[in-house]
């Protein structure tokens, strides 16, 4: 980890500003994030569709439950790009062992329902602590930040649903003959409908980079604070120009 | 110069600026005349403090002063553009007259459907149902049916107030939305204008065909002068927004949009005032059933003439001069 | 250029001013608070107006109109760019040249809410805020306004209460001064080990007789904050 290669400005930020920075970061890597998400999520989605032909809700439950898994390649990419390491889609996929395996079992079980999922996902992926250390670590990281992190999860969850409903409304507006907003139609949608399937997985993919990046920036900004990255970077820059021959006590004070 | 000497030399000056900036009492104009000059001096001090690497606390303090001063300076200058009265006399007519193209376009999109629909409904009385449900049509008929009018009995004043509230909520809301949806390349404004033209045209045609003329026209003529024109104006403002995106000219789209919005919102101030007046007339004058129709017709005509004259012909030279002065 | 969420403006006097932009999540939550407040006002006054019959209905409709269109404008213009919801998140609306929001700009951005709300649930606004550099919704773009965090909180100087200020023997750049000050204030509550680790980085720069690098850096930080003893 070379702090000088950070692509973000290492400032001490409050939690909300950290989430905002996440949005800026997500914009930078958005397209790659969406593609990675679809590459991982689409086959699993198709497979569960084939296996559970009758009950559509099971597919959707699977899709929702496996979100942390789908988000992992994006998080992996961000964690490398953050330190200026170029990660294309293919390169990220080829490192699958590094993003797929670490703590994946706990992430999909006991850690799945945490509202701070986004902020703590980097802990599982990058630090890979044992379970009792995990709780200590997340407690330290979550101090002051877990509140905002929870709200980020809540807001982005709603954004996802709003996009889905809005897309539906747009369909209804453009093709009024094909869509009737009745209960039977809703039931049909949740059962088996190709358009609905495609649009829901697309919407999840579109929002995911923002959620990953917000959580990741919450995590990074907290570490900047806890470990004084901003100060360390400044001091190291200062030392880089230092030649031992120069007198440490400089006479150049203007005071 | 050492930092301490620097601070000693100017601390009084900074203190004066600080008190001026923190002065919440807006009436005192003391020290305001020299403020721009002092502000530039303050900026120099900040630049010096930064370049000589004086301590962070001093730089922070000066930075804060500069920030506050900047806000103060540029708020003062933007606020000083005349009051409401000046806007009503010159500003609003000027805003309208410099956007004639959009006004004509909006008027056409409103009036043509209006007239065509009115004629069509008069020729074919089933057409009204393409715009309104049958319940609404029956309601409207009974509202203007002369045989159902209880002549001589004034509507109660509390229902006047209710209708006043309704007109404000509904009509001004429509005008605001008509403006805002112009952002989508003008499509929203066109839709609102055309739809309202069709609906009002259909109602007029239907009631005329039924022969309810002596109840309907005296009712609408008064507030129509303010209401219908204001809707057209809001549509014009919306079209201006949309057009700036379609044809930004030399500017970027964003810049063109911001410039057009700045101008269009002036029309919207006027639209707001006009619709308040319209709601007042509609609720308390048009609805009166004691006033003879002759009075309503003549007053209504006078209002139409007044509105048109005020918007497009009143004080031509001075409004033109104002237009040039504010551009 | 490192990624950041800062809006920079150069004044005509050649001074750089900056503001920290606020994005989708805090703004959405601030909106929810405002929405709740507006609903409460409409409900409470609605119940009171019920006792005034039809006139009450009229007044209530006017109230709805005011709450829908003028509530944000009035607060933004007369309360320093802050509706109650924005105030609770410490954010405010300003013009994009960082001056207080003007009446016209506030009205434009709030009238154009109509466009942001479409097609449902502010979806256009959400997309616009997420994809523009300055987190602007459509209304902000047209009005030329930004939503930023207001003044940062006053720093908590409890961490340096017992530290002796030390006049630096070195010429420090602005960035370095900030680093010393942040170190002294210990903004992130670094552990003692970590503090020592960072302070030791610049050991060669410190006076030769410095025994404890941490204390020295903190002392200089305190001095830079304006304390001379």
Structure characterization notes:
The complex is a heterotrimer of chains A (255), B (327) and C (229). Chain A has one domain (10-233). By secondary structure, chain A is mostly helical. Chain A has 13 helices and no strands. In chain A, helix 2 (30-51) packs antiparallel against helix 3, helix 2 packs antiparallel against helix 4 and helix 4 packs across helix 12. Chain A has helices at 15-28, 30-51, 56-65, 67-81, 89-94, 96-100, 104-108, 117-127, 131-142, 146-174, 183-191, 194-227, 229-240. Chain A is elongated. Chain B has 2 domains: 3-79, no CATH class; 84-326, no CATH class. Chain B contains 12 helices and no strands. The longest helix of chain B is centred in the C-terminal third of the chain and has 34 residues, at 213-246. Chain C has 229 residues and is mainly α. Chain C folds into 2 domains: 6-149, no CATH class; 157-224, no CATH class. Chain C has a two-stranded antiparallel ribbon. A two-stranded antiparallel ribbon of chain C has the order 3-4. Chain C is elongated and about 85 Å long. Chains in contact: A-B, A-C, B-C.
Number of helices of chain B: 12
- Main sheet overview of chain B: none
Report the largest inter-chain contact.
A-C, 55 and 52 residues
Rg of chain B is 28 Å
The amount of helix of chain C comes to: 40-55%
Domain module count of chain C: 2
Find the structural class of chain B using helix and strand composition: mainly alpha
Morphology call of chain B: elongated
Query: Runs of chain C with pLDDT <50, length 5+?
Result: none
List keywords for this structure.
heterotrimer, A: 255 residues, mainly alpha, 13 helices, elongated, disordered C terminus, B: 327 residues, 12 helices
Helix and strand topology:
The complex is a heterotrimer of chains A (about 260), B (about 325) and C (about 230).
Chain A: H1 15-28, H2 30-51, H3 56-65, H4 67-81, H5 89-94, H6 96-100, H7 104-108, H8 117-127, H9 131-142, H10 146-174, H11 183-191, H12 194-227, H13 229-240
Chain B: H1 3-22, H2 35-51, H3 56-79, H4 84-97, H5 100-123, H6 134-144, H7 157-180, H8 187-210, H9 213-246, H10 253-286, H11 293-313, H12 316-326
Helix pairs in contact in B: 1-3, 2-3, 4-10, 4-12, 5-8, 5-9, 7-8, 7-9, 7-10, 8-9, 9-10, 9-11
Chain C: E1 6-10, E2 16-20, H1 24-49, H2 53-78, H3 84-88, E3 91-95, H4 103-111, H5 113-117, H6 123-131, H7 138-143, E4 145-149, H8 174-185, H9 192-201, H10 213-224
Antiparallel strand pairs in C: 1-2, 3-4
Helix pairs in contact in C: 1-2, 2-4, 8-10, 9-10
């Amino acid at each position: 980890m070379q702090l000088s290669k950070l692509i973000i400005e290492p400032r001490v930020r409050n939690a909300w500003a950290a989430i905002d920075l996440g949005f800026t970061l997500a914009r930078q890597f958005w397209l790659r994030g969406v593609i990675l998400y679809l590459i991982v999520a689409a086959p699993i989605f198709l497979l569960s569709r084939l296996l559970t032909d009758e009950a559509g809700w099971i597919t959707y439950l699977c899709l929702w439950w496996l979100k942390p898994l789908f988000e992992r390649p994006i998080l992996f990419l961000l964690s490398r790009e953050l330190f200026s390491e170029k990660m294309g889609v293919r390169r990220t996929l080829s490192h699958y062992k590094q993003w797929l395996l670490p703590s994946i079992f706990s992430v999909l079980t006991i850690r799945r329902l945490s509202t701070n999922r986004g902020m703590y996902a980097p802990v599982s992926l990058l630090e890979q602590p044992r379970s009792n250390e995990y709780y200590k670590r997340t407690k330290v990281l979550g101090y002051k930040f877990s509140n905002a992190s929870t709200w980020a999860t809540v807001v982005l969850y709603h954004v996802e649903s709003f996009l889905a409903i809005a897309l539906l409304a747009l369909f209804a507006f453009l093709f009024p003959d094909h869509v009737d907003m009745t209960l039977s139609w809703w039931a049909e949608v949740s059962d088996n409908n190709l358009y609905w399937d495609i649009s829901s997985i697309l919407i999840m993919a579109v929002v995911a980079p923002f959620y990953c990046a917000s959580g990741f920036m919450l995590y990074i900004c907290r570490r900047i604070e806890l470990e004084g990255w901003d100060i360390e970077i400044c001091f190291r820059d200062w030392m880089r120009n230092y030649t031992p021959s120069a007198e440490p006590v400089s006479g150049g004070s203007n005071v | 110069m050492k930092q301490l000497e620097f601070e000693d030399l100017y601390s009084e000056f900074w203190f004066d600026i600080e008190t001026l900036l923190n002065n919440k009492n807006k009436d005192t104009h003391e020290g305001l005349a020299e403020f721009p000059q002092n502000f530039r001096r303050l900026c120099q001090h900040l630049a010096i403090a930064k370049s000589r690497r004086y301590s962070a606390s001093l730089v922070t303090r000066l930075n804060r002063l500069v920030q506050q001063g900047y806000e103060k300076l540029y708020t003062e200058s933007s606020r000083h553009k005349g009051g409401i009265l000046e806007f009503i006399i010159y500003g609003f007519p000027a805003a309208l007259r410099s956007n004639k193209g959009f006004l004509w376009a909006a008027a056409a999109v409103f009036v043509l459907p209006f007239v065509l629909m009115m004629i069509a409904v008069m020729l074919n009385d089933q057409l009204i149902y393409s715009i309104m449900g049958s319940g609404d049509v029956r309601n409207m008929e009974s509202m203007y049916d002369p045989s159902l009018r209880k002549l001589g009995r004034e509507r109660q004043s509390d229902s006047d107030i209710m209708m006043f509230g309704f007109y404000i909520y509904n009509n001004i809301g429509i005008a605001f939305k008509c403006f805002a949806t112009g952002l989508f390349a003008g499509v929203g404004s066109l839709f609102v204008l055309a739809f309202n033209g069709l609906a009002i045209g259909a109602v007029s045609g239907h009631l005329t065909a039924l022969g309810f003329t002596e109840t309907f026209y005296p009712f609408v003529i008064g507030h129509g002068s303010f209401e219908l024109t204001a809707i057209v104006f809001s549509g014009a403002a919306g079209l201006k927004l949309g057009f700036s995106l379609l044809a930004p000219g030399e500017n970027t789209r964003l810049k063109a949009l911001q410039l057009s919005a700045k101008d269009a919102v002036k029309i919207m101030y006027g639209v707001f005032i006009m619709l308040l007046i319209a709601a007042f007339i509609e609720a308390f004058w048009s609805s009166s059933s004691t006033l003879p129709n002759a009075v309503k017709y003549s007053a209504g005509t006078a209002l139409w003439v007044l509105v048109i004259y005020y918007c497009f012909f009143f004080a031509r030279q001075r409004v033109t001069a104002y237009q040039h002065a504010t551009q | 250029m490192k990624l950041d969420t800062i809006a920079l403006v150069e004044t005509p006097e050649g001074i750089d001013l900056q503001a920290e932009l606020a994005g989708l999540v805090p703004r959405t939550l601030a909106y929810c608070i405002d929405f709740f407040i507006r609903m409460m006002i409409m409900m409470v006054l609605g119940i009171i107006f019920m006792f005034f019959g039809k006139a009450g209905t009229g007044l209530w409709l006017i109230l709805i109109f005011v709450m829908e269109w003028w509530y944000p404008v009035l607060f933004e213009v007369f309360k320093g760019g802050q509706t109650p919801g924005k105030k609770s998140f410490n954010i405010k609306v300003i013009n994009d040249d960082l001056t207080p929001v003007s009446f016209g700009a506030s009205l434009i951005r709030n009238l154009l809410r109509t466009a942001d709300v479409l097609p449902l649930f502010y979806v256009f606004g959400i997309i616009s805020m997420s994809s523009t550099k300055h987190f602007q919704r459509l209304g902000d773009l047209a009005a030329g306004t930004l939503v930023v965090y207001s003044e940062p909180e006053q720093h908590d100087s409890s961490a340096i209460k017992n530290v002796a200020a030390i006049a630096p023997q070195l010429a420090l750049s602005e960035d370095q001064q900030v680093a010393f000050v942040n170190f002294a204030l210990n903004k992130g509550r670094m552990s003692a080990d970590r503090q020592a680790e960072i302070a030791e980085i610049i050991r060669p720069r410190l006076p030769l007789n410095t025994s404890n690098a941490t204390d020295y850096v903190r002392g200089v930080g305190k001095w830079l904050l304006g304390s001379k003893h």
